[in-house]
Amino acid sequence: MIPRVLLGTAQVPGGGELRLLQRGAEFSIMLGANELMNSRLSGSEEALAEQACDRIGDRPGVRMLIGGLGMGFTLRAALGRLGADAEVAVAEIVPAVIEWARGPMGALHGDGLTDPRTRIFEGDVAAAIAEGKWDAILLDVDNGPDGISRPGNDRLYGARGLSLARAALRPGGILAVWSSAPSKPFATRLAEAGFAVDEVIARATRKGGARHTIWFATKA
Questions:
Q1: Rounded mean pLDDT of the chain?
Q2: Where in 60-154 does DSSP place strands (E)?
């Protein structure tokens, strides 16, 4: 068996340490015993972007915000769907994740970071949301609304956070939220915040794997 090699570590604001590991061509990012990301499991992250883009439609000059760079699957999928006049801002709160994307995981990210439509925002996605006038806000900053890796993420998924996200969207805009598991309380909060909610199950890979949940919440 090919051993895992530790490529780097990074402190998470608010506590915890990320570890970047490589086994052969496979990368993984761990937080303690939790595997947050694996380069073999990109299906639901790609679905997050692709289905959000499909729901936006062909409107010109799309402005999309992605919360969490991760391994770049969501960014690359969005760039593959959006037009040349789009802007895709990516907010990443852990600087090392951006460094890893430009370093050991460069081949995995491809030209996503250098695409002229991409804007990298090093900081909290909440600050980027506040810029407003987004056509789509995609949140994949944790394992879902439970915020297990960074308790501060809870404020994004609470009533006030959802209200701020709705206010930051243009009419007909989409708030898309990825989760490793379903959450009826969160779906209820989305509806109470004034969104029309569609809950979708996406598989971890194109061929199957774990079932992940994505909420597509539309601003009327």
A1: 92
A2: 63-67, 87-92, 118-122, 134-139
